[in-house]
Amino acid sequence: MIKAALKSLLGRKVRLLMSTFAIVLGVAFVAGSLIFSDTLSRSFTALFASTVGDVVVRPEGGTTADGAPSTVTLPASLVEQLREVPGAARVDGNVNAFGVFVVSDDGKVVSGFGPPAIGGNWSDAPAGHGLQGLTIIEGHEPHGPDEVVFDERTAERAGYAVGDKVDIIPSTAIAQPAGGEPAAPARIQPTLVGIAGFPSGGSLNGATYAAFDTETAQDLFLGGEDAYTDIWVTADDGVSQEQLRDDVEPVLPDGVEAVTGDDAADESASDLMEAISFLTTFLLIFAGISLVVGAFLIVNTFSILVAQRSRELALLRALGASKRQVMWSVQLEAFVLGVLGATIGLGLGVLLAMGIRALFANFGLDLSGQPLIFAPRTFIASYSVGILVTMAAAWLPARRTGRIAPVQAMRDDIALPESSLRRRIAWGLALTVAGLVVLALGLFSDLPHGGWQTGGGILAILLGVAAMSPVISRPFLELARASFARAFGSVGNLAGQNSLRNPRRTAATASALMIGLALACTMAIVGDSAKASVDKSVSENFVGDFVVSNVIGQGFSPVIGDQMQQVDGVDRVVRERFASAERGRGNQFVAAVDPADVDALELDVSDGDALAAGSVMLQRTWADDEDLGVGDDLELELPAGKRTFAVSGIFEDNPVVAAPVLTTLDDFADGGFPDSDNVLILFTDDSPGIQDRLDAVVADLPVVTVKDQAEFAQEQREPIDQFVLMIFALLGLALVIAVLGIVNTLALSVIERTREVGLLRAIGLSRGQLRLMITLESVVIAVLGAVLGVVLGLGFGIALMYAVRDQGLEVISVPVGQLAVFLVLSVVIGVLAAVFPARRAARLDVLRAIATE
């Protein structure tokens, strides 16, 4: 039986190749996601290990809750004290700052969303365990205020070489020019004197780094204070990190801590990986979608293959093979296909991982300097998924082979036993109802893990509809047959009858396309509704005449607001700042404004009084969720330490305030947050040329823009468009699998109907008419899948947006034009999918086709 199964498999090489398509693509997505995830994890682990000393001394509030350096520093005198510690080989003070943007030679900001733009002082201190960190590989160290060093990738991306004048925008700079008032330079132009890199390989993963000498860095980022943001202590030979830490701790003042470099690296890497873990989850979700779609194709393929071999299997039964032997012979074929598909898919996954790496490089996460990581789990997962999914998908057709009676081998026509349509309806209806219940719980209840419930409900509904599709699609197929008969005569009638001949096969093939389009339609509705909600929110809540913000989403120098205030026609400038603090076990977003500017924001204060020093105002929804009211205390862990604020007022939700907690600018600064603005709201007299005068202030600052209401709304919509576009790109793989499924089904159907095709040609059907018949069959499958997908996508999208209507997404918008495009594309897909099968059918030799058994 094993020999017979393998011989049968190798005797049908074309079918073998086509049967592996789905599993290859599904496994490729799983392998690619895991390879990218492991590469990402390893790159950050190696990066952080090479950017910490043996012992790191830091203020307890040295960073904000989101990891950015705070204004809490260490006195320079502590460096001298630490040099006296036994076991310390050397001690180096570091100055670090975020928001130090490098502008390329063509005027564009090198930094992007995600990886930070880092600035600081140059140090040649070794990393922990003697590892070599960033090292000058060209040029020399910076000396004086007019010299800077870039990391290798930043210099390359910006188009600079050693000796060039470079543009840098230090958003938190607070330098003090000699004999003048404190001022913040909006832009500096030092000379690039050195390029740094990792000699053993590696990069900063998309972050940019600009290093000055220590005195310049202190002037730029610490206001000239002789201090550091952290200190590295390097261990003598034979001294462990733990021993050195224990020796350092007694020297430290209150509020300062010492941690080993290993602990600091693990802490940074784990925090970052937790923050971006959604990437892996995100990719694996789409891998799962691809596998579900692929499973439909595999089930369909094996159903056709087994049906075509019914006589052969019946003969095996007649020769004495048991039901179990016949069933396991089919499972053996599935196992071989699974191994083959997983192997090819693993190779394709490498290419896919490279593609994912390139895709995320466009969003700032640049891993191009990192080799791909092939962990054992990638191989285990790829082969497990490839083999198990293939064998599971082949189990139903294999099980049906055992129901072939040996006596059927004597008949010319053998029909493979099929399960009852009534049973399919029952199972499909049960799955659909269960899916609706789980979906409702995920969307409308407060149960934990609502995202998994929502996803599980959607999957159950899709599978339920797929199970019922042979029955619920029959009216559509009858209508298509009648329409084709009227439009194309007997050829159209034949195409319609062929679709109706095996509604299970037609519906199963359409179901693969249905899943992809249902999810695409859902995302189209979510994206369109989100943009419509943004437009409504901006139109109803926009205050002032212009908004100034950073295109990177980070802060910018406060001097810009000072300069805007001096522009002729500007009546008022409202500064808004925001950052993350810690509250309990999680982070809490906090905003800050000047109390005198609260009235300009037009907040609807429903309870309490105005904002004052030492107090906060809360958004109504958040206050209700946290059970807080006027007079209560709110405790926050700020970089400068724990602070308790009195709740002075409650205001109705308003997107003008970027966080649910609003405090004063002075309290914000005292808490240790950087001195940088995030948003400026400008009130003007609408005099002619006002925007041109405002634009002139930031003309040399590509990171900062001035926007009116329409431009601000457009800026808010852009991230939504990018997200939806990425979703469509990933869903494209599932749609490719579905299209291949149509091609596969038609091609195998042509093989199955070789004799019938020959007879049709013999009685006068031309090649053109044959191609038209197969094309119409393909169009029926594609349009059926599209109709089911669009209907389900409409339901999912509207339900999802209705469930989140209380989270600021109040508008439900259905992009009718986009959904119509999906339907039109389904016809195009049907026509294109039929090209290969129709061409093959038209080239069949008539006499040989008639003689085929």
Automatic annotation (TrEMBL):
Family per record: Belongs to the ABC-4 integral membrane protein family.
Transmembrane segments: 16-36, 282-307, 334-360, 380-398, 425-444, 456-477, 507-527, 723-751, 772-804, 816-838
Subcellular location(s) per record: Cell membrane
Keywords: Cell membrane, Membrane, Transmembrane, Transmembrane helix
Domain of life of the source: Bacteria
Protein name per the record: FtsX-like permease family protein
Domain spans labelled MacB-like periplasmic core: 17-250, 506-667
Membrane association type: Multi-pass membrane protein
Lineage, broadest ranks: Bacteria, Bacillati, Actinomycetota, Actinomycetes, Propionibacteriales
Ranges where the ABC3 transporter permease C-terminal domain occurs: 285-405, 729-845
Organism: Nocardioides endophyticus
Pfam families assigned to the protein according to its UniProt record, in alphabetical order: FtsX, MacB_PCD
InterPro entries, A to Z: ABC3_permease_C (IPR003838), MacB_PCD (IPR025857), Macrolide_Exporter_MacB (IPR050250)
